Amino acid sequence: MRFAVLGRIEARTDDGLPVDLGHLRQQSVLAVLLIEHGRPVSADVLVDRVWGDAAPQRARETLYSYLSRLRRVLGDLVIRQPGGYLIDVDAEQIDLHRFRALVSAGSAAEALELWRGEPFAGLDTPWFVEQRQSLVAAQFAAELDLVDLRLEQGEHGQLLPGLKSRAEAHPLDERVARQLIDALHRAGRTAEALDQYDVIRRALSAELGIDPSAVLQQFHQRLLQKPAVTSVVPRQLPAAPGTFSGRLQALDQLSSVQSIAAVSGTGGVGKTSLVLHWAHHNLERFPDGQLFIDLRGFDPTDAPLPVSTALTAFLHALGAPDATIAADEQARVGAYRTLLAGKQMLIALDNAIDSSQVVPLLPGRPGCTVVVTSRSRLGGLLTHHSAVLIDLNELPPSDADEMLSRQVGAARRAAEPEAFAELLEHCAGLPLALAIVAARAGSRPDLPLSVLADELRESRLDALTTDELTDSLRSVFASSYRALSPEEAELFVLMALAPGPDLGTTAAASLIDQPVAHVRALLRRLESANLINQNAPGRYRIHDLLRLYAVEQHDPESRRLALRRLVDHYLFSTFYADRLLAPRRPQQQLADPEPGSRPVEHSDRAAAQQWLDTEHACVVRVQRLAASEGLHTRVWQLAWALNTFHNRTGQQTAQLIVWERALAAVPELTDPAVQALVLRFLGQTYAKVERHDEALRVLAEALRYAERDGSALVLGHAHQALAAGHERQGDYERALPHALEQLSHRRRQDPAWAADALNFVGWLYALSGRCHPPHQSPRHTPLTRSI
Fold it and tell me: pTM score > 0.90 for this model?
């Protein structure tokens, strides 16, 4: 049960439900017991306090009826003892006693939150009036305690209006006067503060015939000795960028921020330009000025700016004389927050390395808006300071086009549209790259855009540079790279070597040969550093220009082993998926995967299908990587493992690509059975896309390799494929000999193979006119075992 008297008299259960305490006079009985908590109150005292001089003739009997009703709703909380009645609850459960305890503990703000209005509202006996006056005085003292605390926290700007009103209402209260004088001085209005001291001095003399107390006089003397803080309006924003374009959503997000925004993105993505463009278009929101500082978190030429240096710079900007700036960093933080209190300012903290560099520069109270830019996501600001995260990625094509067009000029763009389009493509939407290209084009109006496009085609990172080191794209990326731990840097470089459009977590674990859980943590840190993006849950990509920089950092031996692990990750994962999708398909024998590779063993057919749907583009590109790395066996095995998926999803173009790559590996293979297999599958794929002449040529070559192998299985497959190739073109006479050869080889295998072969031979006899069918049948594709 909770009881309240600091306002209307109330009781509530622990669940917050109100308790019906009866009429006001009955409530007054409870109020006396609550106020006198811990002390029994006699019936005579209760009568005197509840009725005063207006007690009825049978006051005791009425009192007992009130107590009886209170017991019915409060249970055994109201008890009788030899000395009288009391309420048996903890003082903590009564707002009045909780208020007094909190005030004694120095928690004035929390204590004042308990007040809901006039204490014991509606009760007017002499005793209640006296209690009310005492409590209101205690409330006033607590309010003054809170003002002292808030002044120490630098909130003088917010307090001043209320302090002036209070001083007018209490012209002889020296504590109120001292607080107003202090707030005026802290706000840089020392002359007004001294005038206010004179006001209280004259009022005390005129009304009471006394001087201010020794405490107020000493405060006045200290005030005279303190240097005044000059109130200035800093305007530190650099000029607005001339090349800004787009970013409408990010601008809207910034405009909605009330306290702290963290603008995050990779180097060169335009974070500072965004903030400056927005700030210059919203100056009216910050009448007290704008602070700006480059924290040099990722500066290519210098170390991050120490917090103490930033604080000193801001204190100077806010008008603090050198003599008032303390050597201790925490003291500087306090002074800085004091000067910001009550102001509406923009504080732009550019290029922060982490949250620890930012937190000391945050204001102590609401009022100012802080915008931080960083290549890191500043999780500490998001978690502990409720910052709004604004993630910047590369510009969409339309905004990039607008930005470059504006700088290059419409005439040059119209004269060389293809070269202009190539410049856009090479910049990949990165604002810094676009700005560098625009600057280079602008510095040489006579230079054809095609020349600049040729340079970018030869070496993008070399071309995307200026005479200034800070404007070199490579140096911008290098400063981000240097901030990584060795493990993070290794994973970043290896991910850039992966050929797919993105990379899954398990594939990344295979690249770096680390447990998946550990790699997830590394990926989170790289994402937080804005060196990779999570384009889908658990899948990551690297910006094209960052990828170029990362590839330059690789170690050849680490690269070789990592790529072998990656190839085997995709090969074995695809192989396991194929085994689930086509369990009756004769399986190939694969060597063990590269040590450290972590293939995915799918739980069921649905999981296998989903994995292939997601990873197909990566698997196809990894096959190309395997070919470039000379992993010839892996090349044809990847094509074979994808065969079922390609056939079932109708991806004949992709099927043709992977088997043509496998064909290029045939001269490097030593097993004629494998060479025949590659040629046979390629020939069958040619036939499916209606390239019949190429199909027959490749299938004939497959037969030659099969003859070198000499096994019935391989020869049977080769003859069957050739027979089917001729049959597709309607040349049944050429198809039949190969079908008969197939039959002879199949009969040396199991009966099921022989039955398929006989069926095919019979079908070809019928098509060649050596039987008399009762009617014309539709064209029939022979049933053959899955190979």
Answer: no
